[in-house]
Design goal:
globular, HTH_MetalResp_TranReg, 117 residues, transcription regulation, 3-stranded antiparallel β-sheet, mainly alpha, single chain, 6 helices, 3 strands
């Protein structure tokens, strides 16, 4: 039985954590969007829809740094993954964010490059 419990924990560790819409907190979302790279990722997803990691239009950063930024956005509830084989596709949680925080997605879409530094 002990082996089964350990195996279950491994599966749980691989499952991405995403808060439910009712659990989204404005301070957590704003903190996640407070970094210029994460704001660019969110803007990219808001304007173009679902993308995988290699398609993000952000500064030249390493894969590990990009993964870190994606993890922060995902755990804050800003983006959601869709896993297809070994590929991870991400999309902005537009509907959930608009219901919970009206106008937030519009603000992201209307933010120009000059305000993101």
């Amino acid at each position: 039985m002990k082996e089964k419990a350990e195996y279950a924990n491994v599966i749980d560790m691989r499952t991405p954590t995403i808060p439910m819409a009712s659990e989204l907190k404005l301070t957590t979302v704003c903190n996640a969007l407070g970094d210029p790279i994460r704001m660019k990722i969110a803007h990219c997803l808001a304007s173009s829809g679902e993308k995988n990691c290699s398609a993000f239009e952000v500064d030249h950063i390493s894969k590990s740094t990009l993964s870190h930024h994606i993890k922060i956005l995902r755990e804050a509830g800003v983006i959601q993954p869709r896993i297809e084989g070994k590929q991870h596709f991400y999309s902005l949680r537009k509907e959930e964010l608009n219901v919970r925080f009206p106008g937030l997605v519009d603000m992201i879409l209307n933010t120009t490059e000059e305000y993101v530094h």
